[in-house]
Amino acid sequence: xxxxxxxxxxxxxxxxxxxxxxxxxxxxxxxxxxxxxxxxxxxxxxxxxxxxxxxxxxxxxxxxxxxxxxxxxxxxxxxxxxxxxxxxxxxxxxxxxxxxxxxxxxxxxxxxxxxx
Length: 116
Description:
Layout: E1 8-14, E2 17-25, H1 28-33, E3 44-47, E4 62-67, E5 73-79, E6 93-98, H2 101-104, E7 113-115
Parallel strand pairs: 2-3
Antiparallel strand pairs: 1-2, 1-7, 3-6, 4-5, 4-6
């Protein structure tokens, strides 16, 4: 990873279970880039603030979880490359992961995630 890429700095947690390493896109540039140009991601990426995402230029399908201010999962969608996601007006953050990750991790709408 280069110095400009987001780096694993946290863990995504549900209850007592650590789900994955979490990259945090801290700057506007990092949020704009997201997962573009990558072949995959082993954990997840937090984009905050964010209400929507797109997959133009993506190389793989992703799961997207829209989160409230207190990290409650408001919606989960799977997006294939080349799509524009609908903005969620009440979302304050988005977590992106490889397609199927949220199902494997048993993350559902209404769950409250933690970042540690």
